[in-house]
Amino acid sequence: MSSWINENGPLLFLALLDGTVTAFVLALIALGLSLVFGVMRIVNIAHGEFFMLGAVFSWFAFDLTNDPFWGFLLALVIAPALVGGIAVFSDRFILRKVKYHPESTIVATIGLLYVIQSVTLMVFGPEARAVESPLYFRIQFPWFGYSGYKLIVAGMSALCLLGVWLLMIRSKLGLYMRATQQDIEIAKTCGVPTQKIYAAVFALGGGLAALAGVFVVPIRQADHLMGLEPLLLSFIVVIIGGLGSIRGTIVAAFIIGISDGIISVFYEPTLAKMLATLFVAMVLVLKPSGLYGEEVV
Amino acid sequence: MSHKEVKSEEQSELNITRRSVLGAGAVIAGAGIVGSQIIDPLGKTAYAAGSDNPIKIGFQAHRTGIGALYGRWYERTTNSAAKYINSIGGIAGRPIEIITEDDGTDPKRGADVVEKLATQHKVDFVFGTLFSHVVMGSAPRAGELKIPYFVVSEGYHVASGALNRYVFQPCITDVRAQISAVSGWLFNNLGKNVTLIYPDYAFGYNHRDYASAAAEKHGGKIVAKIAIPPSESSFTRYFVKIPKNTDVIYHVMVGPGVLTFVRELGDHFGPNHPQLFGFIDSLEGVNISSPGLDFLDSSYFWEAMPRYADASDSAGSRFYRNAVGVDNSGASKSDSKDVAAYSHMFGCWETLFAIKEAVEQSGYKSKKDYSTLIETMEGFTGFNEGIAHPQGAKAFSGKTHQCYGQQFVSKVSNGKLNVIHKTSIADGMYEPETDYTKQSL
Fold it and tell me: How high is the ipTM of this complex?
């Protein structure tokens, strides 16, 4: 037993580290998708592209300031703001026009995905571009080194998740969002400005994904196709956790993140993705509403 | 409620009427027409105004997809070469016209692009593919369409006999030859226990197979073989599988994540790392003095054409570097952040000259002369070093349709790559495994 720990202990430790970072970032991206479904009852297929835009805008901020630290600060402000703006625009001129019908929004957001991807390809180019991280330092564990910035990303994502939770519980906007999610008709009669809430939620969802993009881009490069994998993973997380439940999203993100880390390190990354998809299938068969489905917070 | 009533209710609810659909359709069609005038998808570059009877060369470019970095530099080099060749009189007095199509670094699209270039654009020759899986997907189509297909890849596929007699790789060496040439140096100087890290597809498998064979030959041992998908974005989970008794990490990586790959390698090992022998593919397009890459100091790289200029460079090499717009540290002259894929792109320049030589020596005039052209090229024994072949002199085998050339081993010091070992052409030769001349055309 102790020889197993000696041999595989470091692998397990790395798997947990990597898995934790993945889990926090995934939670942030998936939360946006989950909130949008919970409050607006629509599925946004272009959600991954908001993540990609966050990374791409971060590159522009870095290119403009030519300094990793100030570029990062600038990106933190402008990326979520710009993506939020694009989200509000899409809500007003696309989603509202199809009256938020479920099937129509799926098709419309697929179109939005293609438009965003292609415009990014035309303006940003096809190749992946690097963004320097605002802080670069290495943590030396006894068996291997690890990027300190990755741990900071986990920390920043955790803070953002806390912020969103506080927003939902403590603020008026959060109250309106929860009311709209529970019952939109009653909320309207109580004077909740539901159309504005819809726009705000869509912007918040996009902004969270963009923020995740800003955090992650120094770890990997920015390219116009990088939104596809997070989209798939966040759907898996949201289905398992239950659409509309913050707690469910976070729990599911950890299940997927940690298991992805462990299976990738001990077996193959592809196997990890296969098992995650299999888990989704099981959840859909056994408990279709997800682990915490239909809960509000 | 009847079905008709419900339908019209829905229609008016969504404010969709026939009029609005037609209107939207007209707007989209109009935008498409205007857009297509602005963006020229064909990328046709005719160099001589009023030229009749140009030689049309179809360029299959990785403009998008995982090979986009290489595609960009391949395109610049191709255009520079065409411009220069036209300035010295073209090919057999006829100007070259390069017609570029994007294959998205995708094998299926590659086959479509070959077909489009051959049948729609009616080009004389197709050239320019790099990524080996695209080569494998596209070359058979060229064989079916019976059009000469000049590959600028490093895969062993042409020389292995897996393709067809219309396919040539005349001006860039293959992985088997590269490994044969440098492996002796590696096992004798760096260590015996080697971990291989390579991309999980055709090109990577060539590295895996021939490095393993070389280990047997030189008394080394491959202690681990780690295959990584080229589209991967996070590599730490792979590094943790490197065995502790590794003397040398042999790495070759491609795709958009190469900078992350080398950085995470550095994060993982820190200052106490095994010897590193990389193929410069892991660093093409990446500035070696990027933050996080200082651990690469004192490590070694195979290069096909040294990125950093040296006082001993030949006149042809200096001419070429200037003509393609690359400065002495291997970056674009107009943007020092844009580092070139210098160990690969020379293949495009030299291949266009090889086509020129084949056309002029065979007397090729049109498609009915393909067999004469192919037989002439199969008779070539090599190319001399010079402006036409700045990477170095080459030997050429008509049987394998493959060239053989010099390889370089460079060491990283003070943020630069310095050549410390050059191999001879003979170091990389191997017994031919195929004879395309025996195939019918």
Answer: 0.81
